[in-house]
Amino acid sequence: xxxxxxxxxxxxxxxxxxxxxxxxxxxxxxxxxxxxxxxxxxxxxxxxxxxxxxxxxxxxxxxxxxxxxxxxxxxxxxxxxxxxxxxxxxxxxxxxxxxxxxxxxxxxxxxxxxxxxxxxxxxxxxxxxxxxxxxxxxxxxxxxxxxxxxxxxxxxxxxxxxxxxxxxxxxxxxxxxxxxxxxxxxxxxxxxxxxxxx
Length: 198
Ligand SMILES: Cc1cc2nc3c(=O)[nH]c(=O)nc-3n(C[C@H](O)[C@H](O)[C@H](O)COP(=O)(O)O)c2cc1C
Known about the structure:
The chain is of the alpha/beta class. The protein has one domain: Flavodoxin domain (Rossmann fold, 3-Layer(aba) Sandwich), CATH 3.40.50. Strands 1, 2, 3, 4, 5 and 6 form a six-stranded parallel β-sheet that branches. Strand 4, helix 5 and strand 5 form a beta-alpha-beta unit. The two termini are 24 Å apart. The mean pLDDT is 93. The site of flavin mononucleotide has 14 residues, from helix 1.
């Protein structure tokens, strides 16, 4: 029997998303950004944060052949049980930080049965610069072409000058940013419902 969540029509189960912040830093702006996204998510989107990125070893196909290391297995299980991915990425040297790319590389294999195919993806990112991870997010969009995942096209969430956008407990203080994140997450739900999980 289907039970309705408060605010949801009967028969509509929430979209389940895994949230990953691509930084290992405790005081990471992208961790804060993701935590804000969890709170800003609409009633029909549940974001479960995956916080074991530091347990994902560097990808090595020799290791992969003998089975997933525990951190990778946990990530794969979380993603396989989900309908969508919410990524908050930093930008390192105009690109995607290695820890995040490495996790996506693990998820992308074996091709054909990876957890990424058919998954919908919402991208956001925060950086102290005036471009707010625009270049890293553009690279991620290319990565998700190869994995056959569906990135929400719009809006793009670039939290620029990140050091000025959060209060002392990590809440976003910029109403423009919260509004655009809400819109992105609504669009994620909409795209996920329209496409379904392939
Ligand atoms: C190795 C390295 C390279 C960086 N390159 C960029 C960059 O290309 N663009 C940018 O906006 N910020 C860059 N930064 C600054 C990061 O945006 C900043 O450290 C940010 O706080 C990292 O995200 P986090 O707070 O989620 O850990 C770089 C930082 C490091 C450590």
